[in-house]
Design brief:
The protein has 272 residues and is an alpha+beta fold. It folds into two domains: 113 residues, no CATH class; 147 residues, no CATH class. Helix content is 62%, strand content 10%. The chain has 13 helices and four strands. Strands 1-2-4-3 form a four-stranded antiparallel β-sheet. Helix 3 crosses helix 13. The longest helix has 25 residues. 31% of the residues are buried.
């Protein structure tokens, strides 16, 4: 952890007034992204998260140009960003958690960040912002769940779809992903049902995903049957928790008119 911490702190620079900042191109290397285009996707997601949190994107992601050598004494101008520590935090938290350096970075920032402040901030968000916030978290956690499923012998897309259905059936009283899509009136082959969930329904699914991944890892689940049964059982536990909390069942919650993808596009346009 110290090595990762130092590499992040060592690329820190200071303006003439002493303000600390990081260059995005250097952070890209630090986080082991080989190509700028892949890192730029994470950076763009972090900018949307910044906007959702109520901060001015331009205060934390300052676009700059820098000259680089491309060989034979030739130089060309490329786009870069001056990032605040908060911007770096958002980038790391939206990175690929399967990368060890990202996982370590997320742990580092989780320790350094006051959770209470973010809880208070989340409470102030409107419904659409909460949906985007949780949906982004689900995308990350689903990658970890997929990794745990693979370790349990779930290899093909068909096998993974069956595994996912077991989780949904536990949470939605027997409904599969196809059933949920039909009930919501969307084409499950072209759109994700997760994109058409409100914040409470998304939160229930996030809990299902994180708890299933944790149980599978702790219990060393090593077969598809065990993995499916675990996912189903955790789904039922989350459903029971919602009942005991007095919340509506997930299938009773309203379907938003706009998908999270549509909301992301709208907010991305506002950033341009």
């Amino acid at each position: 952890m110290n090595i990762k911490y130092k590499s992040f702190e060592e690329i820190k620079q200071n303006d003439d007034d002493g303000t600390e900042f990081w260059h995005a191109r250097e952070l890209q290397v630090c986080l082991q992204y080989k190509e700028w285009r892949n890192f730029k996707k994470v950076l763009n997601t972090a900018k949307i998260a910044c906007q959702i949190s109520g901060h001015e994107v331009s205060d934390h992601f300052v676009e700059v140009n820098k000259m680089v050598d491309i060989g034979s004494g030739t130089r060309r101008k490329i786009k870069d960003y001056k990032l605040t520590r908060y911007a770096c935090y958002l980038i790391v938290m939206n990175g690929d958690p399967r990368k060890e350096v990202i996982a370590l970075g997320q742990t580092y920032f989780a320790v350094k960040t006051r959770q209470q402040e973010f809880n208070e901030l989340f409470a102030q968000l409107d419904e659409d912002s909460k949906r985007l916030f949780i949906r982004g978290d689900i995308k990350q956690k689903n990658m970890l769940l997929a990794e745990a499923a693979k370790n349990a012998g779930i290899i093909t897309n068909k096998e993974y779809a069956v595994f996912q259905d077991y989780g949904y059936k536990g949470l939605y009283a027997g409904e599969t992903a196809k059933d949920i899509a039909e009930r919501k009136g969307i084409d499950g082959e072209k759109e994700s049902i997760l994109d058409y969930m409100g914040s409470l329904e998304l939160a229930a699914n996030l809990f299902r995903i994180t708890q299933t991944e944790d149980v599978m890892k702790r219990n060393n689940i090593a077969s598809p049957n065990e993995a499916n049964e675990t996912h189903y059982r955790v789904g039922k536990i989350v459903r029971k928790a919602m009942t005991e909390a007095g919340n509506p069942m997930p299938e009773e919650l309203p379907t938003p008119t706009k998908s999270t993808k549509e909301l992301e596009k709208e907010r991305s346009k506002k950033l341009k």
